[in-house]
Amino acid sequence: MEIKHSIKTMGAFRKALVGALVVALAASATMFAFTFTSASTSITATSGGSDFASMSANNTVPGYNVFGSYRGAIGSGNLFNLVPAANYTGDLEVNVYLTNLDDLSKTYGMFLMALSLTDNTSTPADSEGIEKPLTLNNGVVTFLADNLTGGTTYYIKTTGGIYRAFPWAFISGSIYGPTLYAEVVQAG
């Protein structure tokens, strides 16, 4: 008899436990349902009218002749123009690449151009304010520009450079001149 009584007691206890859980779940669900509120909003965004900056070629560097076994100079001049958008206030990163390294390495044993990012008075416009070497070993130069004025033209320039040609450099079919590529991206 005692076993029957304890089984009945356990069944009643289970029913009471399940009932209490159901009541607790119902109470907490209604609490969350009545205390939760929501809202939505929209942010107005309009067209900036253009890209955040533009880059264009402006090559004023004089050409040069390459002779075999010759060490020569590369002249100075502008390479590219950079114009941040008038209403753009962010930082810019400018990368200049020497894109035909493989071809140039067949003509030159050494190649170096000093590049800088300047304003119209030739004052450095990047955060470091130094000339940077573009070489056969260092085929990319990066400038970080953090205080440019929107709508103003800035210049990627070379103050010149040097090269040393291989003895066979003058042979027809060789690549003599560097090909440069510049891109501007948002910094940060």
Description:
The protein is of the alpha+beta class and 188 residues long. It is 22% helix and 34% strand. Strands 1, 2, 3, 5, 6 and 8 form a six-stranded antiparallel β-sheet that branches. It is elongated and about 110 Å long. The termini are far apart. The mean pLDDT is 88.
> How helical, in percent, are the residues?
10-25%
The overall pLDDT, averaged over residues, is 88
Q: Please summarize the sheet with the most strands.
A: 6 strands, antiparallel
Structure summary, number of beta strands: 9
What characteristic shape results from the CA principal axes? elongated
Beginning-to-end CA distance, first to last residue: 80 Å
| SS-derived structural category | alpha+beta
Proportion of beta-strand residues: 25-35%
Uncertain runs with pLDDT below 50, 5 residues or more? none
* Rg over C-alpha atoms, rounded to the nearest angstrom: 35 Å
Order of helices and strands: HEEEEHEEEEE
Q: What is the count of DSSP helices, taking H or I runs of 4+ residues?
A: 2
What keyword list fits this structure?
2 helices; 9 strands
Question: Short description, anyone?
Answer:
With 188 residues, the chain is α+β, with helices and mostly antiparallel strands. It has two helices and nine strands; from the N terminus they run αββββαβββββ.
